[in-house]
Design goal:
The protein is of the alpha+beta class. Helix content is 53%, strand content 18%. It has 29 helices and 31 strands. Strands 1, 2, 3, 4, 21, 22, 29, 30 and 31 form a 9-stranded antiparallel β-sheet that branches. A 6-stranded antiparallel β-sheet has the order 14-13-18-19-17-20, covered by helices on one side. The longest helix has 36 residues, at 452-487. The chain is elongated, with a radius of gyration of 37 Å. The two termini are 37 Å apart.
Length: 1011
């Protein structure tokens, strides 16, 4: 095939040019995003139930929802959590479930359940989780002094939101911090009593005055007119003029017995930018959109907003494109330095400039054509796929160096240029194909990992396979063609093959080789003993998900654990921000309940999240430590969690699941065990180190108990009494003014004071017509109640999270404790999920090793020689561990990718070394009369000399190309540095292994009987 293609250089050249042109066109259409659009198999159902307790939400809302959704197809797990006024049900599906259909199915079942849910409850919100739901940037909208916040809310919802949604690539715009105006009616109780009226008279007057006659029309000849009541109200002044009729028939204007005015709706939550109340707009991208093109459009739009709306300030925070730009920058750096160092190393070792130029052409050609594969496999350009391309670059350089070196060697043996190109490629073709297949055999099985990890590895596996197969095509077709074109006018004697440096290195290699082979058994024994020693280094390494990236921003999560309202929560946050003024560059805070449509976290009035951006890492560390001391000193009940601001990776992999959780259920009552009884049970709990789960956390509550006997004695209707309480303590909605899609509620307002005074100052009428104070019929107590009620598929549970070591050792004791208290015990948590993942990973790696063995056995036509390649891998891994330990680097996702990169290059070198030995042995058997032992020794010696140059050039080129990352700073360098250390450590020992361990092992596993 190579001979045929080389006879048609113009056709081959045009074909590659066409592929490059098509790839450039395709590249412009590929979506660019931070992460692959992973369909996370989770759906969250959110419930907002004003003035409802956790128990009421659990019994009346969440339990019916759980029972209605239990039959969903593919449902793997269900967790619900009821808090004050809010509740959530989190549904987890099996991977592979069609989430579009699951989302439709959940919505249909929620619609069917609507009639069985409490009247007045807004429809539960169904949220589908996707990686594209992570906002790419947050736009702060800050009203200037004197500007009405409600007007800015209308501006943001009706104009800014729509203008952002019109930008190409934007899928959704979400808003938090909105405020709206309501009309409040505050009755004058003294005036009502003097006129013998009640609040009911006022409410009836407003409801009558705001009524409409929908669908009623009259005919006038050939015309038809629709009727509309002229008494409909639109403004507080209209309400004041409404007539109110008393029981004795007198009629007065409503304004004489009540004050009516516009007010801001009572806020359940706030958004703060610095210390000012503001709105935040999160922008989400479409799956096919290019993030690097979308962000400039958003920045341009914000500049226009500043000019068009001077009454509002704007700012952009938490730009998620930083990580993507770092990944692209690192790929560009690898390409530039890879090309420069490849040129330099080849020039130093080979002494001519044409060969480096050939590699300089082949590298970008392979990379560009790889994007054609991205298009056909529907892969976006993201951090994961880019890391796959970076992973394949080392192998790409390796293949190019091996092919060019082999062609040069064939010319050196006396073959004509054309024949040297053909034979040079054909000789290493099978070995290079095997090396690529073995690399893929190690890597591709990882896509079968369950969960998000497997989904992420899919993009990486496709990108690796793409660049490796394209590099083979380039190495087998384009490289020999370029070599033929560049050297056809050069005589063999004019080409400088080996530089003085390489001649010196070759002499040193031979000396070490001879010394090692004089003591073969001792040398091999030392190398084999190094394997367990180096692998044990892994026990000294810290293990984490992502490498520690130097971040200048931080998140402070606060749960006050006190029954405070949103306003008090806001005041505390403002006080904290004031005390830190001038110490940070930017800050924003989400206080209380969040209004985001896509927010799937816990909404609570007592919680707040603060974001800070600092100038440097030291400032951030000192300020955050000072803030922690301030909070714990002033608010001892508060739970404070300070973490680095999460990027998209953190948000994707983060989990609220406890590490090791013990759950129990009371199967008789199917309710939470009361607090006092639970406290007694926990005194005998067999583990000392544990923390309360959500179902055991408590908060102070006021418990109202109606005295039904008194109500009956004085002839007070209990339903009327409860309605009175609802109007007194709740936001009683009299009616709504609707005009052109805008809804303005009319609310009955009560004086804001403590509840005891409200009960004393308000009364209810008995059967004798007399008024009695509400406090006569109510008994109240202060009690600590459970803050949340948690449940799963089988019902309500309570739990504790265990800490310490040997957690599974307490399982039997915990089960006995549960049996003694007639509780059903269950264990769950991240611990069990991690064990399942590790078991899967071990199984997948065993399959990968078997595939590796099968491919090599087929390549070498031998069952023993593949073991040599397999035993080189632990040495490389151990070398990587050693460098990670010396540099203080953890074992994380990026260092693991570096291990795969290094193993691919090591396998390549070992395969080619063994393949060369096999060919030389076969050649010498037919051309010499030496014994098999002498032939083997000669073949090993010659193979070492032949393969020395490509092995050294590949390793040195790869190491030098990656070395600048070690001395760089910034987010991209922090992310890639563990990968670089893994590759450098592995290749340093891996090069020594390929040069000396492979021939030693080959000597001992090969029969040496005489010819």
């Amino acid at each position: 095939m190579v001979r045929f293609l080389l006879t048609r250089p113009i056709a081959v050249t045009m074909t590659f040019l066409a592929l490059i042109i098509f790839s450039v066109i395709v590249f412009r259409t590929l979506p660019i995003s931070l992460l692959p659009p992973i369909d996370v198999p989770q759906i969250v159902v959110k419930v907002n139930y004003a003035n409802a307790s956790p128990d009421a939400i659990e019994q009346n809302v969440l339990r019916p929802i759980r029972e209605g959704l239990i039959t969903l197809n593919g449902l793997e797990g269900m967790e619900s959590k009821a808090g004050s006024e809010v509740g959530t049900v989190r549904l987890t599906f099996e991977y592979g479930t069609k989430m579009e259909l699951a989302y439709i199915d959940v919505n249909e079942k929620i619609d069917r359940l609507t009639n069985s849910l409490p009247a007045g409850l807004t429809r539960p919100q169904v949220i589908r989780i996707n990686t594209n739901d992570i906002p790419v940037v947050r736009m702060q909208v800050i009203p200037k002094s004197g500007v009405d916040h409600a007007e800015v809310t209308l501006l943001t919802e009706n104009i800014l939101k729509k203008r952002l949604e019109q930008l190409e690539g934007v899928s959704l715009v979400d808003i938090n911090g909105k405020k709206s105006r309501v009309i409040t009616v505050n009755t004058d109780k003294a005036a009502l009593n003097a006129l013998k009226m009640t609040e009911e008279n006022v409410i009836n007057a407003i409801q009558s005055g705001n009524s409409d006659l929908p669908g009623i029309s009259v005919e006038d000849g050939q015309f038809r007119y629709y009727l509309r009541l002229a008494t409909r109200v639109d403004h507080p002044d209209d309400i004041k003029r409404l007539p109110v009729r008393s029981e004795d028939g007198s009629v007065i204007d409503l304004g004489r017995v009540a004050s009516v005015q516009y007010e801001m709706e009572k806020a359940m939550g706030f958004h703060l930018y610095e210390e000012k109340e503001a709105l935040v707009v999160t922008v989400h991208k479409q799956a096919a959109a290019k993030m690097n093109e979308l962000l400039p459009r958003i920045y341009d739009a914000v500049e226009l907003f500043r000019d068009d709306y001077p009454q509002v300030d704007f700012d952009l925070t938490q730009d998620q494109s930083t990580l993507l730009n770092a990944g692209i920058s690192n790929l560009q750096t690898s390409l530039v330095f890879g090309g420069l160092f490849a040129f330099g190393v080849l020039f130093i070792f080979m002494g001519n400039y044409r060969t480096p130029i050939i590699i300089g052409i082949s590298l970008p050609t392979s990379l560009i054509i790889s994007f054609l594969v991205f298009y056909f496999f529907d892969i976006s350009i993201n951090v994961i796929s880019l890391s796959g391309l970076a992973l394949g670059l080392g192998m790409l350089i390796d293949n190019a160096i091996i092919v060019l070196d082999n062609i040069t060697r064939k010319r050196k043996e006396g073959l004509p240029l054309f024949e040297a190109c053909v034979e040079g490629v054909n000789e290493v073709m099978s070995a290079l194909i095997s090396s690529v297949l073995t690399t893929l055999a190690v890597f591709i099985p990882l896509i079968f990992l369950s969960g998000i990890s497997g989904a992420l590895f899919y993009d990486q596996a496709v990108s690796v396979a793409a660049i490796l197969f394209v590099s083979l095509m380039v190495a087998f077709i384009l490289l020999p063609l370029l070599y033929w074109l560049f050297f056809r006018s050069r005589a063999l004697e004019e080409i400088k093959e080996d530089s003085r440096l390489f001649v010196w290195v070759l002499a040193g290699y031979k000396k070490v080789y001879k010394r090692i082979f004089k003591r073969r058994k001792l040398s091999l024994g030392i190398l084999i003993l190094m394997i367990p020693v180096l692998l044990l280094v892994s026990q000294l390494l810290a293990v984490e998900g992502l490498p520690p990236i130097e971040k200048l921003d931080a998140i402070v999560e606060i749960d006050w654990n006190e029954p405070i309202g949103a306003q008090q929560n806001r005041d505390r946050i403002v006080e904290i921000l004031s005390s830190m003024e001038g110490t940070y560059l930017k800050s924003e805070s989400d206080v209380g309940v969040r209004q985001f449509l896509l927010y799937d976290g816990e909404n609570s009035l007592q919680q707040a999240t603060l974001y800070f951006l600092f100038e440097d890492q030291n400032e951030k560390k000192s300020r955050m430590e000072g803030l922690r001391q301030l909070l714990t000193g002033n608010y001892p009940e508060a739970a404070v969690n300070i973490v680095d601001a999460p990027n998209a990776f953190d948000q994707l992999f983060s989990s609220d699941m406890p590490f090791y959780e013990v759950r129990w259920k009371d199967l008789k009552s199917k309710k939470p065990i009361p607090g006092a009884q639970m406290d007694d049970y926990l005194k005998a709990f067999p583990v000392t180190q544990w923390e309360d789960g959500p179902g055991l956390q408590k908060e102070s509550s006021v418990i109202f108990k109606l005295n039904l006997e008194k109500l009956a004695l004085y002839g007070v209707n209990p339903a009327h009494f409860q309605d009175k309480l609802q109007k007194l303590f709740g936001n009683f909605n009299i009616t709504d003014i609707k005009r052109f899609g805008e809804i303005t509620p009319i609310l009955l307002k009560e004086d804001q004071t403590n509840f005891e005074q409200l009960l004393t100052s308000n009364s209810v009428r008995g059967k004798d017509g007399l008024e009695y104070g509400l406090h006569n019929f109510i008994e109240f107590t202060y009690e600590d109640q459970f803050k949340f009620i948690t449940a799963d598929k089988t019902g309500v549970y309570q739990s504790v999270s265990l800490a310490g070591s040997n957690l599974t050792g307490y399982n039997q004791d915990i089960r006995n404790w549960g049996n003694n208290n007639q509780l059903s015990i269950d264990f769950s948590g991240q611990y069990f999920r991690d064990r399942e993942t590790i078991q899967q990973l071990i199984g997948i790696l065993m399959v990968a090793v078997l595939l590796l063995y099968f491919i090599l056995a087929a390549q070498f036509e031998n069952f023993v020689q593949p073991l040599i390649v397999i035993f080189t891998l632990p040495l490389g891994i151990g070398g990587a561990f050693l460098v990670l330990l010396f540099t203080g680097t953890s074992l994380n996702v990026m260092s693991a990718i570096g291990l795969v990169v290094m193993l691919g290059i090591m396998v390549n070198d070992a395969i080619l070394k063994i393949d060369t030995v096999n060919r030389l042995r076969a050649k010498h058997i037919t051309t010499t009369s030496l014994s098999r032992s002498d032939i083997l020794e000669r073949a090993l010696y010659e193979a070492g000399e032949i393969r020395l140059k490509p092995i050294l050039m590949t390793s040195i080129t790869t190491i030098l190309a990656l070395l600048p990352v070690v001395f760089s700073a910034g987010l991209g360098a922090d992310l890639q540095r563990p990968l670089v250390f893994s590759v450098i450590g592995g290749l340093t020992i891996g090069t020594f292994t390929a040069l000396y361990f492979v021939p030693l092992a080959y000597w001992f596993v090969t029969p040496k009987t005489s010819k």
